[in-house]
Structures are given as C-alpha cells and as structure tokens.
Design brief:
The protein has 6 helices and 2 strands, in the order αβαααααβ. The protein is mainly alpha-helical. The chain folds into 2 domains: about 50 residues; about 55 residues, no CATH class. Helix 1 packs parallel to helix 5. The longest helix is centred in the middle third of the chain and has 25 residues. The radius of gyration is 20 Å and the shape is rod-shaped. The relative contact order is 0.22.
C-alpha cells in the first residue's frame, strides 16, 4: 500500500507541475512602466479570465495517458501473476497504480505548455493590456 501511495503522490505532483506554467513577458515599455509586481497581477487576472471563459491549462493528455498506463499496467501485472502463481487481483491493482502514475507523469510532460486555447487566451488578454508574451515557463 505504501508503494501505491508514493506513486499516486508522484502523479499529483507531476500534474501540478504541468499546470503551474506561466507566461514569460518580454521587457517592453509596458513592463518597464508598470513593474514586475503589477505585471504579475495582470497575468493572474488574465489567467482567471481564461478559467472563467472555460479554458483550462491542460490535463487532458495527462489524464488520458494515466488511464492508458493504468490499463496496460493492470493487464501486464495480471498476466505476470498468472504465470508466476501470485495473487492476480493484488498484482493487477499494483500494476494499475504504477502504470497510471507513469502514464500521467508522461502525459503531463508531453503537454509541455498546457492547452493552446488557454495559452492563446492568456496571451491575447495580456497583449490587449500592452504586454508581449514570448513563451511559457
């Protein structure tokens, strides 16, 4: 059970890391005029507007990869336990947890910068406020 808990914690942390990316602003005249703290408040406002509009920073690839990994891990572990004579249910559950965590972590890293709609929304919002988004980090 400890292994399952550790693996699930790793999945959650990987998912959070993928979602917490923020736009990187070019140091143009607007950024120099308002300063970093106000610019970051504007970034937060634009992110909140994107959420209100229904855009999400990602997660679909991580969830899909997690489900695929869980299914493959459960199947492989069940077959392995049948061959070796171990408890099929316990092995399948452990394989599903490990496969799900590995799949979700892989999906989170594949997403990279989150959903294009979310990035475009935030970028346009910041652009209308005078900022220039050069990437996400």
């Amino acid at each position: 059970m400890k292994i399952v808990s550790v693996v699930l914690l790793g999945t959650v942390l990987a998912g959070c890391a993928a979602v917490s990316q923020r736009p990187v602003l070019y140091p143009n005249a607007k950024l120099k005029q308002v300063g970093e703290s106000i610019a970051q408040r504007d970034v937060d406002d634009c992110i909140a507007l994107a959420h209100k509009a229904g855009a999400s920073p990602g997660g679909s690839a991580a969830g899909r990869s997690g489900m695929q990994g869980a299914a493959m891990g459960a199947a492989a572990s069940a077959v392995g336990s049948l061959i070796s004579g171990r408890n099929v249910v316990e092995s399948a559950a452990a394989g599903a947890a490990i496969g799900g965590a590995a799949g979700a972590a892989g999906g989170a890293f594949q997403e990279g910068e989150g959903s294009a709609v979310f990035r475009n929304f935030v970028g346009r919002c910041l652009g209308e406020r005078g900022y220039d988004v050069i990437g996400w980090k």
